Amino acid sequence: MEIKGSSQSSLMGIPIHKQICFTTGKSKYSEKIVKQQTKILKKFSPFLTMALEPGEEIWLAVKATSPMSLLEQMTIGWVIVYIKRCILIFTNKRILHFPTRANFSPKASLAQIRYGDIKEIKLSGFLGRTLKIEYQNGKKEKFSYLPSREFKKLKTLIPNLAIGVHPSEALSRHHLCPKCVTPLQKNVFSCPNCHLEFKNPKQAIRLSLIFPGGGYFYTGHPLMGIGDAIVETILLVMLVKVFFIAFSMSESFVALTGMIPVALALSVEKLITIYDTKHFIHEYIPVDKSVAAIGRG
To answer: How many structural domains is the chain composed of?
Structure first.
């Protein structure tokens, strides 16, 4: 698909290239696509109004699943597909990556992929519809579970992206402050411009160690926190029970050895919680809940 001059529409002040955004892969206008794209973009309009640069226009909004490690998939299980849901918004300058809740609503986390930071981008239909990106710094990421219609549309759109032109200092996907859209520094959990504070790994680890499910609650995953709290509480009760039984028996050493597998299981559960929450933290979650509420209107 050859992209010609801008043919803009406007949604809540957001510039949209309607001949791209509201058409099929064969460039046919579709009311169904208009409704679908409009529904997504309305949810993110507060962030988009603030984030879009001069001369930038929206080409396509795509539902997807954010990159995830194999260990994340193993420790969290199939639920990870819902936890890692996101929206990718393609513009004429970059891809805006919005990690979302399970219902694809915003959660005040924003990243960008400048087209100049991409070395190679391609679609794969093998074992599911995925978008594979290799960055200028050599890092590779994969966005999974793309809807069929948008997958077909991207096949015509990707050849028109300005890949490798004017790379940024980051050379890969990097997060932006959801309050002032300043690029954030890796592993620095405050905005260098507006000084917005983000939840940090030290606090996540501390809460994970002290309170059952504490790390999950801290990072905004209450259901996982409840599940983890139940498992950890059961293991703690078992550990205390075995401990007291040991001191009531004549052969206490034998009984104490029974604590080892329980203590080991509890340690593994704690380590899994710490691993998961450290990954969640890197979505840069604002401590200020009023910022997180911007996109919930």
So the answer is: 2
Q: How far apart are CA 50 and CA 294, in angstroms?
A: 11
Per-residue pLDDT, 240: 87
* Same domain? 132 vs 87: yes
* 104 and 236 assigned to the same domain: no
Per-residue model confidence (pLDDT) at position 250: 60
Taken in order 12, 14, 15, 21, is the CA torsion positive or negative? negative
Residue 57 lies in a domain: yes
114 & 150 share domain: yes
**Do 124 and 270 reside in the same domain of the chain?**
no
Alpha helices in 201-221 (DSSP H): 201-210, 214-218
Q: Range of 274's domain?
A: 201-292
Whole-angstrom Cα distance, residue 146 to residue 64?
Answer: 5
Going by C-alpha positions, the residue among 297, 271, 295 that lies closest to residue 108 is 295
Full-model pTM: 0.89
Same domain for 40 and 122, yes or no, is yes
Q: Can you give the pLDDT at residue 27?
A: 84
pLDDT at residue 292 in the model: 60
Same domain, 170 and 205: no
Q: Which residues of the chain are modeled with pLDDT < 70?
A: 1-11, 247, 249-256, 292-297
Specify the pLDDT at position 297: 45
Cβ atoms within 10 Å of 70's Cβ, excluding its own: 7
**Residue 297 burial class via C-beta count within 10 angstroms: exposed 0-12, middle 13-18, buried 19 and up:** exposed
Instruction: Report the pLDDT value the prediction gives residue 164, as an integer from 0 to 100.
Output: 86
**Cα gap 31→286, rounded to integer Å:** 37
